[in-house]
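The material for today's practical consists of a large collection of protein records. Getting from the letters to the tokens is the skill we practise here. To make this concrete, we reproduce a full record directly below:
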Amino acid sequence: MKRVILFTIFLLVGLNSAALAERLAVAVPEANIRSGPGIKYDKIWKVGKYHPLNIIKKEGVWYGFRDFEGDEGWIHKKLLKKISTVITKNNDISNVRIGPGLKNDIVFTVEKGVPFKVLERRGAWVRILHADGDKGWIHKKLVW
């Protein structure tokens, strides 16, 4: 009986977390990530515009999140917007092309952890825009 109760609690907590998970993106040029929900907590790192975050907790105006590498932190909600974004996840250099497909020329390359706004999706390809204005197409397997 205890196993059934524990399983039910685990299931409800898991469903609640999944229901809360919301993907938002940084909408300002640079944002501080804090160790807790408030300015009294340490700044643990910074992220740039279009950085995608999965929101997992909310405490007032502070959102707890998990990023593409599984790291967690806190950010003020006014720094976020509902923007379709991706971030490069490939450990090697990723090619960004002029068009969707391997036959298209490479416009530029990016390292792991570069965020982009999504402009369009076409099959397995994503048209992206960097905060500095660079645009191109990247394969969806290379981004989170």
Notes: The helical segments are 2-20. Residues 2-20 form the longest helix (19 residues). The longest strand covers residues 52-59.
